[in-house]
Amino acid sequence: MSEINLKEPLLQVQNLVQHFPISRSFTVKAVNGVSFYIRPGETYGLVGESGSGKTTIGRSVIRLYNPTGGQMLFQGQDITGKLDGKTREMLRKDMQMIFQDPMASLNPRKKVEDIIGEGLEIHHIGASKQERQALIGDMLKKVGLSPEHAARYPHQFSGGQRQRVGIARALIMNPKLIIADECISALDVSIQAQVVNLMKDIQEETHCAYLFIAHDLSMVKYISDRIGVLHLGYMVESGTKEEIFSNPVHPYTKSLLSAIPHPNPEVEKRRKAITYDYASSGLDYAAGTEHNVGGTHTVLGTDEDIRRWQKQ
Amino acid sequence: MSEAKVVGNPSANKKILDIKNLDISFQTNAGVIHAIRGVNLDLCKGETVAIVGESGSGKSVTMKAVMGLLDSNATVNSGEILYTYTDEKGQEATVDLLKLPKKQLRQNFNGQRIAMVFQDPMTSLDPTMTIGKQIMESMFLHLQMDKEAAKARALELLELVGIPDAEKRFKNYPHQLSGGMRQRVVIAIALSANPDILICDEPTTALDVTIQARILELIMEIQQKMGLSVVYITHDLGVVAKVADYVDVMYAGKIVEVGNVNEIFFEPKHPYTWGLLSAMPDLETDDDRLYSIPGSPPNLLREPKGDAFAARNQFALAIDEKAEPPLFQISPTHWAATWLLHPDAPKVEMPPELVARLARARKEAEKYL
User: Fold this and answer.
1) Can you give the residue range of the structural domain that contains A37?
2) pLDDT digits (tens, 9 = 90+) for A247-288
3) Predicted structure pTM score
4) Which of B80, B139, B154, B232 is deepest in the core (most CB within 10 A)?
5) What CATH number does the domain containing B367 carry?
């Protein structure tokens, strides 16, 4: 189980559909047929504005939601429908999540060691309490905290330290895939850099893959190998970061890239973001199909759209 | 270079907010936290000042003091916050906001003359009230408008902040709107009583880039239309670059560097500012590791000895351990509190990555000059 073929995707998502029925006549169509894959040890960045479905995808993949349609394969096993005990255990161990708000995602009434150790206890990892504590101590050191911190409560930490606790909780299960849902957005710039460096170091050491969900494009570009751009529940463009950033094709991607703030006052004061409005753009995402425009670069659109965009 | 007691932004415009030597501490179970240690800050009419710093540096506390929103365990040890305005009779008046009774502050200043936009639009709106009602609330209170006039103005404001279908949205509850729309509503509420000063506490942190750009452009547009003075509290240097005229960099309850926006971005002098600028990747960053300022901000439970930043500063000098650096003047608008600027200090170059980065930024900027 430990050595899987590196060519084989770790996670394969095919046509994922996630709808939330609100009432008899109204359904929120959060995700409408999104496909992507993540190879072992790589970082896949999902970007898009709020309401584009990026968090929903993360939550569907880790099965906090029951997908409406489509298929998801994780380590070759179907994790879409009703899970049997074994698959569930595999999923819960090998896929972990780091949440956005470290204060809201840590139980304020539990000590850090109990928060980090909860998974160990549930999955009966570590024979004794001492062994588990040793594991927790090692993990705390790995994320840059000291083992003495184990007996503290979340409120006794700063924001960056709390996020480290969140990372430690995800890592202690030795996951193959970590879903990082806006995990640095709530942190300060200097702390963001620390956490991103930590995530990179951990990836080098454990070869885990990340599904990195964020709206900060410069950070996504920095950390990701490949990027998927979401809008209104559709994957409008996907490719390696070079493909996306040097040759954006879809107008939404272009507007998104143009909105990245530059830490440069002369540029920034004059820059006007390209506006993109789906309603007035005359596009119909549902009619579009995925087109390969070279390499791994795919764009959603009708044949005619793609031709027009590529000419520009 | 000379030492200075008072820092000011020399500007043709009239000063409307003048914070002098503000010093605030908090009583907590763990002891006294000395959160603000002598802050001087000016805001002139029609200008934008951005306060940059990590969480815990005291940027929000400073502005909360202006709004009179300090928690009950806070003590103002010294300082004054002078606010200059035109009163009802059309005369110019200056008050010290710290000395005003709470009641008067709430009735005549908060919301009416000085308004604030908070970070999280979900927690700053009342979930049980329609947004229309929330926008009209301050008009009833401060402008004594009747219902029709207030509604007409509320609809106007909703349109001003770019909410389509204002009439329909008027009856919506906050949960029916998206994050960006909610923040627009919060801005509409802040603008509803025609304030002089708008304080934005991380107004776009909870929003994503496309919306962020639109909200910032919106605030800038309104600022020009209404002659507002705006204070931004933020840790996002991209936001600062876009909106600010002047930048105050705060660290551990003190302003460590102040200058106009070009000086801070192209000729930063304080090592902390260097760190902040380096830590933010731009699109060309492809280094293996991001630069991060080592360590974490000091715990202000213990009064820092010497320069509070010394422990995290790779350029720290021996004197940093002993004495706190004063503000050294670099240009008429640019000041920094670091011993590196002392005439006797050894010459220190900023990190090479940052030099390259600034050169890149300057080149990019030249295209526009």
Assistant:
1) 11-232
2) 999 999 998 888 887 888 888 878 777 888 787 788 888 888
3) 0.82
4) B232
5) 3.40.50.300
